[in-house]
Design goal:
heterodimer, A: alpha/beta, Rossmann fold, 2 domains, eight-stranded mixed beta sheet, five-stranded antiparallel beta sheet, 13 strands, 31% helix, disordered N terminus, disordered C terminus, B: alpha/beta, four-stranded antiparallel beta sheet, 10 helices, 12 strands, 28% helix, binds adenosine-5'-triphosphate, binds iron/sulfur cluster, binds magnesium ion
Chain lengths: 348, 334
């Protein structure tokens, strides 16, 4: 029972009933709807789900980085971190949490790096804020950080502007900034999306190292299920603002309960001659608009197991005794779960 | 027949520095790359971040001017064309941009964005415009109400579809797809790949498909060209990738790819050594700094591209040791 849920340790981050709404021209939308999960120190939790399902909004809610003018975290939401409720913490409180204790690598490196400042300056700013290093030390440390994330010629790159770097290099600069102050929790929103696999392997190694060395908890948002399979302990599957399934990485990949999770896994391109150039299995239809959410199960319109009940009522998130949860009236396997969850089939 | 013939394409970006902002050096983004793309074929390009894939892709449709080399499209050397001579080809040759965030004008609705390109190239009559746009939006799997929204109202995946719709709007024959599915989650990725496959069949599209995901390239493309530091180091049919791959960098790419199964976790191949800098191209093979197989000759001389078998070209001293004399550069690169 090492990785699966780690029931004996206190979670470092505990999210309960997180609900985040946006004001739009077409009215109020609930982008994240009653999301609850825990992350423990030293654990990697993956969040997967269709584009627009609320992964980034979930992480930006935790960081309180959403535009205040148009967004609102429901007052009943709880984001517990070191005895603080981040959902209601003051902005000055949040400023000391952000970057220092919880760091985030953003999905869009180009828009989160400031285009008018040299990248060295941007790293040094982060160091200035979060460390006591003097100017020369900060410069030195910035160069080291760039070298750590395998940016060639860091001494030179440091005086370049973001547009002079390739997409992958910009992403690595973002990672360098996030790692500057050795955070307790690292939220990585698609950290390897723009990278080729050899660099991706390095970044994953880098994050693994951080986790081992500092017991950092990692929340990893990615659409790359290979990466999830390789590094995550637990997985949260989201759909249209809801958590629709969660469990250990083994359960999710080998014993998915929710039809969406199953369909998601099937749509990965398979290697090999027989599959080459074949159309891939897809999920028919599209995600419901947040403006017109169905009364029943949010996946019902696209689900191959749909019954009348699914259209009329939304299933509750059902938590089972073995630490998994799913939101479906007709889960894939009704059979009792094999008693191996978190046991021998989980490599250390 | 080759639709596109690329010969000795080179792009060096000047680097400025110092108080006088003089050119102090050059980034060697693309170095002497040659290849052919047959009509209806999909060529995959894979390689390290910063190895020059986007630069190459943009040169193919002349969004970036090459430093030297030629690009021949349907028998016509397009590198020599003036801006106005290039105009008709701007419709035929399109690009799906890598970054769906910064490539869409934030002030335009999807409709105006598409209208711009459609009107400019007079694709349909004015009174058919709205129907055409509705159909385009449907074709890429967006809701009809997407037409009157602004880019910021979409998630990453949805924006990528807008990028595809924009590229398709002018009914192109040739598309450079620069990482079109990298920002997408797998179920949408499958839809977009199927969409591109359908469009390929429907319109006989020829594609250059840039991706860092070898698995996607293996599934989707006919041939793959592996790039490293601006060089094409290996080219081969995708179906032969697993068994025939020879270049140590291509092998590393395969070994670093995580498998979609938590029971098959494996130590990923981590390349040692420094990522070389395109400012200071190493003498010899571009891969020397990280290559696990390096021998003395690699440091001294650039390995020539050898056509080991028809359609399988490799640039590596060690991988080609079994081939007696490097053959003269092949005439046809198909
Ligand atoms: N500023 C905003 N105003 C209005 N709606 C927004 C805003 N930001 C996000 N949304 C909406 O919230 C929903 C969730 O978006 P989010 O960015 O969290 O998706 P995601 O799961 O991260 O998707 P992707 O995989 O594409 O990054 C989307 O439907 C999006 O349109
Ligand atoms: N306008 C520019 N000025 C100077 N250097 C540039 C410019 N555009 C690109 N470069 C440099 O050229 C090299 C190749 O960049 P390119 O964007 O083509 O790489 P890429 O293979 O597409 O990378 P990625 O996978 O990260 O998108 C990089 O070293 C980059 O920094
Ligand atoms: S509740 Fe019904 S519609 Fe929803 S996923 Fe389960 S079977 Fe499908
Ligand atoms: Mg996101
Ligand atoms: Mg690129």
């Amino acid at each position: 029972m090492i990785q699966a849920g780690q029931p004996h340790s206190e979670p470092i981050l505990s999210v309960r009933h997180l609900t985040t709404r946006f004001r739009t021209d077409l009215g109020l939308v609930t982008a994240v709807d009653d999301v609850s999960f825990d992350i423990h120190a030293g654990e990697t939790v993956g969040i997967v789900g269709e584009s627009g399902c609320g992964k980034t909004v979930t992480s930006k809610s935790i960081m309180r980085l959403l535009p205040e003018r148009v967004s609102r975290i429901d007052p009943a939401s709880k984001i517990m971190f070191r005895g603080m409720n981040l959902a209601t913490a003051s902005e000055s409180r949040m400023r000391s949490v952000r970057g220092d204790q919880i760091a985030m690598i953003f999905q869009e490196p180009m828009t989160s790096l400031n285009p008018v400042f040299r990248i060295g300056w941007q790293i040094e700013e982060a160091l200035k804020y979060h460390t006591d290093l003097n100017r020369a030390q900060r410069r030195q440390r910035s160069i080291e950080m760039l070298r750590l994330v395998e940016i060639p010629n860091p001494e030179r790159r440091i005086s370049e502007y973001p547009h002079q770097l390739s997409g992958g290099m910009r992403q690595r600069v973002m990672i360098a900034i996030a790692l500057c102050c050795e955070p307790d929790i690292l939220i990585a929103d698609e950290p390897t999306t723009a990278l080729d696999v050899t660099i991706q392997a390095q970044i994953l190694n880098l994050m693994e190292g951080l986790k081992r060395k500092l017991n950092t908890a990692i929340m990893l948002i990615t659409h790359n299920l290979g990466v999830v399979a390789q590094v995550c302990d637990r997985v949260l599957v989201m759909y249209a603002g809801r958590v629709i399934e969660s469990g250990t990485v083994h359960d999710i990949f080998h014993r998915p309960q929710h039809p969406y999770t199953q369909a998601l896994l099937e749509s990965i391109p398979k290697r090999g001659r027989r599959e080459h150039g074949k159309r891939l299995p897809t999920i028919p239809g599209i995600v419901p608009s947040l403006h017109h959410l169905p009364a029943g199960c949010r996946f019902a319109e696209r689900c191959r197991f749909r019954q009348d009940q699914c259209v009329d009522h939304e299933p509750e998130l059902l938590e089972t005794s073995d630490g998994r949860a799913y939101r479906c009236f007709f889960p894939i396997t009704q059979a009792p779960m094999a008693p191996t969850i978190g046991g021998s089939d989980v490599p250390a | 027949m080759s639709l596109l013939e690329v010969r000795h394409l080179v792009k060096h970006f000047p680097v400025r520095g110092g108080v006088l902002n003089r050119v102090v050096g050059h980034v060697h983004a693309v170095n002497d790359v040659s290849f052919d793309v047959r009509k209806g074929e999909t060529l995959g390009i894979v390689g390290e971040s910063g190895c020059g894939k986007s630069t190459l892709g943009k040169m193919l449709i002349r969004l970036i001017e090459p430093t030297s080399g030629t690009i021949t499209y349907e028998g016509q050397d397009i590198t020599a064309l003036s801006h106005s001579q290039m105009m008709p080809l701007r419709r035929t040759m399109q690009i799906i941009f890598q970054d769906p965030y910064s490539s869409l004008n934030p002030r335009l609705t999807v409709r105006s964005l598409l209208k711009e390109a459609i009107a400019f190239h007079r694709i349909v009559a004015r009174n058919e415009m709205d129907d055409y746009i509705t159909e385009l939006i449907r074709r890429v799997g967006l809701r009809a109400d997407a037409a009157d929204k602004f880019p910021h109202e979409f998630s990453g995946g949805q924006r990528q579809r807008i990028g595809i719709a924009r590229a398709l709007a002018t009914k192109p024959e040739f598309i450079v797809a620069d990482e079109p599915v990298s920002a997408l989650d797998v179920s949408i990725q499958a839809q977009v790949l199927n969409l591109l496959m359908d469009l390929k069949d429907e319109f006989g599209l020829t594609l250059v498909f840039i991706s860092h995901d070898l698995k996607v390239i293996q599934h989707f493309c006919d041939r793959v060209m592996v790039m490293y530091l601006g060089h094409a180091v290996e080219t081969l049919p995708c179906l032969e990738l697993d068994e025939q791959v020879r270049h140590p960098y291509s092998k590393a790419l395969l070994g670093a790819n995580p498998i979609d199964d938590p029971d098959q976790r494996r130590p990923l191949t981590i390349l040692q050594g420094d990522v070389p800098s395109p400012f200071h191209m190493p003498a010899g093979c571009p891969f020397i700094g990280r290559c696990p197989d390096v021998i003395d000759r690699c440091r001294a001389e650039m390995p020539p591209i050898v056509e080991r078998e028809p359609g399988h070209r490799v640039a590596c001293w060690v991988a080609n040791e079994d081939v007696a004399e490097p053959a003269a550069p092949a005439k046809s690169l198909g």
